[in-house]
Amino acid sequence: MNKNLSKKIPASYYQQEDVVAIAKDLIGKKIVSNINDQLTSGIITETEAYRGYDDKACHAHLGKFTDRTKVMYEDGGVAYVYLCYGIHNLFNIITNSKDQADAILIRAVEPVDGVEVMLERRNKLKLDKTLTSGPGNFSKAFALDKSHYGAFLTGDLVWIEENDQFRFRESEITTTTRIGIDYAQEDKDLPWRFYLNTSKFISKR
DNA sequence: AACGGGATTCACT
DNA sequence: GTGAATCCCGTTT
């Protein structure tokens, strides 16, 4: 009774090699934040993979190492958060082993726990798909910002859980191209975005 | 010290 | 569909 209802994913999961496979596998899992004693959770519905050295869309392309990107080179299982367009905190999970600099951007979730808290954080009155779809919107609803740069996904602020109760078919996952990376030349067309097409909480179909 | 741009969102036409 | 908002950071001077 009441077993397996809360299974935090361990660091070894994030340290697997294939960032694209992990990005797809994260669909359907549950992401949780517990910030200022306010717990929010949701089902991951949309992700994008960014692959370290090779990927022209990745901030760590060709080993670029700066104050912003340095956490990407840590062992998998930490958060990489950065400010985009001066407004939006984008939340990523670093994967693979040290120095590989692979990352997965969380682009959308379907809210589960803490909807009232999310509404307050987003200055909204009613739940609709914009509450937690789109990477900036998700981060704001879950109160994830630059203060979580480098946070361990094995810690107590933000983590991901197995979600065995949530079932879906393989055909419910759409594989397509990433968004907002037109500068990445030929890599802009890599099929490294995944979303659960039966959810309405998707940034773009 | 200055400059330019971005893994976006929202309001408006 | 178009454009403004907004600021940190990486690059250049």
TrEMBL record:
Enzyme Commission (EC) number: 3.2.2.-
Keywords attached to this entry: DNA damage, DNA repair, Hydrolase
GO MF terms held by the record: alkylbase DNA N-glycosylase activity; DNA binding
Family the UniProt entry places it in: Belongs to the DNA glycosylase MPG family.
CDD domains cross-referenced by the UniProt entry: AAG
Protein known as: Putative 3-methyladenine DNA glycosylase
The keyword Cell inner membrane is assigned to this record: no
Entry-linked InterPro entries: Formyl_transferase-like_C_sf, MPG, MPG_sf
Domain of life per record: Bacteria
NCBIfam families (UniProt xref): 3mg
Any one GO BP annotation for this protein: base-excision repair
